Amino acid sequence: MTRWVDLGRVADLRFQPGAPVKVEGRWIAVFPLDGGYTAIDNACPHASAPLCDGTVLDGHVVCALHLWQFDLRTGACDVGEVWNVRHYEVRQVDDRLELALED
Ligand code: FES
Prior knowledge:
Layout: E1 2-9, E2 19-23, E3 26-33, E4 36-41, E5 55-57, E6 60-62, E7 69-71, E8 87-93, E9 96-102
Antiparallel strand pairs: 1-9, 2-3, 3-4, 4-8, 5-6, 6-7, 8-9
FE2/S2 (inorganic) cluster binds next to loops.
């Protein structure tokens, strides 16, 4: 079952290029993408660098520390699927964002 969790007003999120948000104890990075928004876990699985601080190139975020890449649409890691991060759907409702959590 999908639950939509409120992330607050878009204008209040600090995109750098991802915006870090804490949802039920877990840090998640929200990114603008294709005119909307998407989200992945914020901690890089390699050495825990915050992916919100990476560089976005062609739908991927490049980790600032050792340059691993993660697909913003799926969370897939270019180094191997064992390193994939969790991906989350994000929707905009008026001036706020909501993130999908699967139970
Ligand atoms: S911490 Fe992200 S690639 Fe090393």
